[in-house]
Amino acid sequence: MKKKIYKLVVTVSCLLALVSGFAIASGSKVAKPSPDEAIAMLKAGNERFVTGKATQPHTDASRLALAGKEDQGDHAYATVITCSDSRVPVEILFDAGVMDIFVIRVAGNVLDVDEIGSVEYGLAHVNTPVFVVLGHTQCGAVTAVTNAVQGHGHPLERNISPLVDNIIPAVKKAIADNPKAHGADVIPHAIEENIWQGIEDLFMESPVSRDIVNSGKAKVVGAIYDVSNGKINWLPEAKTAEILKKVEANPKRAMEAMAK
């Protein structure tokens, strides 16, 4: 039954993507998908990529010409932050094209000031209905921090250390929550915790992101990309809701949405 439902979602998403592509190619603007529709489009795109049925949409000359005339905010349906790792080509793994995804890339897919500002732009100005924190297997940044926390680290260049320090709380939580895991066995747990840490960092520092999610205009979701087979494992949306609720009760959360 679940497989039938999933196939139906994928089919509907593909039809939505085709209709959207036709309308855009003809020069007419279409309404943005809902958060759930946008997530379904991402899932369908990854399914096409994994099964060898990628359509490589929105990569032709007409799409480029359209990009030169129109605002990305009229077209992009997702904001995605992922690692800079060359094994994680965002548009390819989602079978998307030009003006489809607002992409943020940084080692370890951490969310600090620059990245959070980029997310705010994606949600509040590009008006994407979904924001995805996309971690991946075999993440070098998470691996390095995990080794360091466990006492097996090595010296890092002066600018790398402050870049990956956001990952430290995630690694410590992974160790605490999985006491039987040691050494490299901690890494998969830390990769997932790093995604949740990023979402918490976003909500703590971005009142506008909290407001957009609370209003239902957008969803924030976590996912892990498997570099060995191309599949994306989508994490429970309920966890994001738990984090948001926790942050809303934290008196240390940022409250001023606009710069002074």
Question: How would the blueprint of this fold be written?
Answer:
Elements (H helix, E strand, L loop, with lengths): L1 H24 L9 H16 L10 H7 L10 E5 L7 H4 L7 E5 L7 H12 L5 E7 L3 H10 L10 H5 L3 H10 L9 H19 L1 H8 L4 E7 L6 E3 L2 H12 L12
Helix pairs in contact: 1-2, 8-9, 9-11
Can you tell me about this structure?
This protein is an alpha/beta fold and 260 residues long. Strand 1, helix 4 and strand 2 form a beta-alpha-beta unit. A 5-stranded mixed beta sheet has the order 2-1-3-4-5, sandwiched between helices. The radius of gyration is 19 Å and the shape is globular. The N terminus is likely disordered. Helix 9 packs across helix 11. The chain has one domain: Beta-carbonic Anhydrase, Chain A (3-Layer(aba) Sandwich). The protein is built from 11 helices and 5 strands, in the order H-H-H-E-H-E-H-E-H-H-H-H-H-E-E-H. The termini are far apart.
